[in-house]
Amino acid sequence: MRESLPDPSPSVTARRARELGISVGDLSTGPHNALTDVPGVRVGHTTLVRPPRVHSGVTAIVPDGVGPGSPLPAGVFAGNGYGKLLGTTQLAELGALETPVLLTSTLSAFRVADALVGWVLERPEGATARSLNPVVGECNDGLLSDIRSRPVREEHVRAALDTACGGPVAEGSVGAGTGMTALGFKAGIGSSSRRVPLAGRDVTLGVLVQANFGGTLRVSGRAVTPADVGVATTDPGSPTSAAPEAGSCMVVVATDAPLDARQLTRLARRAVYGLARVGAAYGHGSGDYGLAFGTRPLGTPAGPAVVPDDRLDPLFVAVLDAVEEAVLNSLLTATTTTGPCGHTRHPLPAAPLLALLGREDPGAAGGRSGTRSR
């Protein structure tokens, strides 16, 4: 049992898509192939597991120095607005991110927002603030967790914020991804990054997804159902359980490219489009959101000029590729989970997937190369 533990990895042997020889696009990744490859961006998790009743948590995305007096340029896009993304209207109106971005379970979002406000007001960045716009995204984990218990509390939020760090990002059934399902499989947190040549300089773009949406998975253009890879789901049927597609998908994008808020909104829009590559159905009950922020503070007199719009295509390609790979990572690194009403979801199994795709396992010869780093 894990309760309130910062950044636990659900499986140290699970392999990500690229370690299985499934790469997306031609661009190179950052050193960790994660959101944290963008300089100054940290990620922390608190995971809450009390089987079979609770599989939930919170994930914190913390850009260095962000605060009400030092906002970062940002944009947001709602592909389908069936969600409770807090802070949306001010972020869209002003194009400014004032706080870290937190992800959690739907009915815990409001407690998480209150805890985030308290955390920011206590820090130097919020010492003189009289107004604050907390940004909290959510997905519905009611299929695999007792969502009505609202298990995420202030100490869990603070633990995720205080332990946020750079380096490899724990994925799968961790933090806000603990109770998530997608495309018929157990899912959760996934991340990926790209190095992008842009307007004469190299920049980094990173993505983190909280995957919890319906549809039919597509891998390398091929449809993959749970039955195709020998995975059985258990659905006893319960009127108190959320339907599998009644979730959301939060996609958070960060970049050190010099972009303004309008351009970051364009990037956020394409992040949501990227979900279609892996088979998202964008169902009635799925709130699909993209949020993109830049790490160059607003109003900085020095520094590079904003990239012209007609030079943005490499970033658009990068975000589509990174979102696709991040979702695959969330499915491959998750762990089998059974919820309080008996629903069971399994991760995407590597060996049957490779067999279905007609590919050899790159780790089969000479042991488990590609073992996931912590």
Could you please describe the fold and organization of this structure?
The structure is a single chain. It is globular, with a radius of gyration of 19 Å. The protein is 19% helix and 25% strand. Helix 2 (109-121) packs across helix 3. A hairpin with a 2-residue loop joins strand 10 (189-198) and strand 11. The protein is an alpha+beta fold and 374 residues long. The strands form five sheets. It has a six-stranded mixed sheet, with helices on both faces. It has a five-stranded mixed sheet with strand order 1-2-3-6-7, covered by helices on one side. It starts with a strand and ends in a 17-residue tail after the last helix. The protein has six helices and 17 strands. The relative contact order is 0.22.
Write a compact overview of the structure shown.
The protein has about 375 residues and is of the alpha+beta class. Helices cover about 20% and strands about 25% of the residues.
Describe how the helices and strands are arranged:
Layout: E1 3-6, E2 41-50, E3 54-63, E4 72-80, H1 88-94, E5 96-97, E6 101-105, H2 109-121, E7 135-139, H3 154-162, E8 181-182, E9 185-186, E10 189-198, E11 201-210, E12 217-219, E13 222-224, E14 248-255, H4 261-273, E15 287-294, H5 313-332, E16 337-338, E17 344-345, H6 350-357
Parallel strand pairs: 6-7, 14-15
Antiparallel strand pairs: 1-2, 2-3, 3-6, 4-5, 4-15, 8-9, 10-11, 11-14, 12-13, 16-17
